[in-house]
Amino acid sequence: MNSESSETIETVLQEERIFHPSESNFKNSSISGFDEYQKMVDKANSDPEIFWKDNALNELHWFKPFNSVLDWSNAPFAKWFEGGKTNVSYNCLDRHIEQGKGGKIAIIWEGEPGEVRKITYKELFDEVCRTANALKQIGIQKGDLVALYMPMIPEAAIAMLACARIGAPHSVVFGGFSSEALRDRLNDGNAKAVITADGGFRKDKIIPLKKAVDEALLDGSCPSVDSVLVVQRTRENISFNSDRDFWWHELVPAQSTECPAEQMDSEDRLFVLYTSGSTGKPKGVVHTTAGYNLWAHLTFKWIFDVRDDDVYWCTADVGWITGHSYIVYGPLSNCSTSLMYEGVPRPSNPGAFWDVIQRHQVNIFYTAPTAIRAFMKTGRNIPDKYDLSSLRLLGTVGEPINPEAWMWYRQVIGGDKCPIIDTWWQTETGGVMISPLPGVTSTKPGSATLPLPGIEADVVDADGNSVEPNQGGYLVIKKPWPGMMRTVHGNPNRFRENYWEYLKPINGNLIYFAGDGARRDDDGYFWVMGRVDDVINVSGHRLGTMEIESALVSHKLVSEAAVVGRPDELKGESVVAFVTLESGKEGTSELIIQLKNHVGKEIGAIAKPEEIRFTNSLPKTRSGKIMRRILRSLASGEEIKGDTSTLEDRNVLDELRR
Ligand code: WT7
After folding, report:
1. Count of CB atoms within 10 A of residue 85's CB?
2. What is the pTM of this model?
3. Is 472 in the pocket of ligand 1 (CB under 6 A)?
4. Which of 101, 216, 380, 456 has CB atoms 3.0–4.6 Å from 478's, for a disulfide?
5. What confidence tens digit (pLDDT) does each residue in 566-596 have?
6. Are 29 and 305 in contact (CB under 8 A)?
């Protein structure tokens, strides 16, 4: 583990504040208190088959019930609820309408320019059916992969549900990724169609999404893609290829609202979502129908404890797993009202979030530490201008939250009466794994507290043995769970090696390693310390250092590059790149701008290095491995600690220091 992590240990050890559930105005209706939570945990541990079976039968609709709960004989390739037939779109729509809930608002959407749309479950159902029929009309069949590259508009959720309805797995690509990054994902997944919009509003700019799709598909570079469905959003001038492109507003409204949900096998793919790892290109995380649906449903129900007339708001983008599980599938499967917001707070509108909360009377709010830190910085006088009294619960996700930000969130936004729910999970886990439950768990600022029922989490050393309380180690999960990823698309070996064989099996049992370091305190509470692999977390966005390095090296003047994360007060981490140039080339300030833009073009603006330093050589071991530990210290202006004797050329250090 790197030096940043051990420092985190020292600060959190001093954290002794504790907030008991009785101090909030929260009474959990789905889990009555800590005793019931403990009973659920015990039941899940003593008889996991029955625990998962009961939950699956009680919480989901089945066209045909399953024959077996878990087949782990080919571990780590799990099969859950085999023999069962279900459909995620049915669970999110049809069953609620059958129970007379068709008139309830499913989605409240607010656009960046301020327009508001409220969509009932029945309206959403009709629109999903029409879209599903439109997809069929353009040739999409069960099993075909459909890519989405969209702004935060209701059509994004509609398109996801329409894909689920006809059994076409989706692959949502965040609209901030570049056309090159989009092309890689389209080709890796063999996408048959792309659903996009002419453009999207982001901050005070327009993002030309359709133009990026055109670039990605240029000259047959994505041979699998036959059609592009385009939502009109910004009314940009776009080029239109009538052999391939279809307008949503011409194709969809003309369709029938009759489209029975396809009866899917439990293990049919629901979606692929790309995420960065420590090696190579982003990997396509595969999630399947029943297990994912169950986990998104249960975790949403337990953690947010949303009441029937509540308005729930998660500020993520649908391009990330948080948007999948906690804007679309979790809330809709539970028949909740999910608010979707296209805008983001910015200097010209710093109170945007609080304004939305006040106007829509939001009760449950879920956002990221990086946003909270930015609000802290602009001061409490901004949120203080708004009436935030509707709030009952405040959630956080995406990166470790520092105790100061946690306390500020609780006091300033929550008025000292809302539980702070710090949820630890990942794209790979499908849903939340470690989190307090409102009205159940006592909270400590900066701790994600305890694993959810059914989740066996631990902190272990490199041999897989549990470490003592308050010792740092690897955060692992020791048993399969329904929402776990099933494989890396097209690369099962990578799935096995990266996640399940990174640490030694214990008594023959494989353990899942998540990539994070953590410790547990004397109460068994988890304190997540951040990634221990070569993944960096910039404003809750996950980036692979290798990906940024390859992007830099693909520039013709760059010979070698090493990328590290530097602790950043607002963003958590920022990207710092050390670059060596082809011989005879000079590192100028223009070249720095060029290289930053080059990374923006290869990956997307979120991956642009904040700082680029030129050097004649990089610190390497004799076997040629770049010593990132040294670069990390240099990037954050710290002294270089630890052993440097393995360094091949000690003069490098002097040069780098200069
Ligand atoms: C990584 C997963 C899961 C949705 C958002 C990100 C970090 C996430 C927490 C938290 C500390 C956290 C971890 C994890 N992370 N939530 N509450 N406390 N760290 O999903 O892009 O798959 O990233 O985000 O490092 O491994 P993701």
Report:
1. 18
2. 0.95
3. no
4. 456
5. 999 999 999 999 999 998 999 999 999 999 9
6. yes
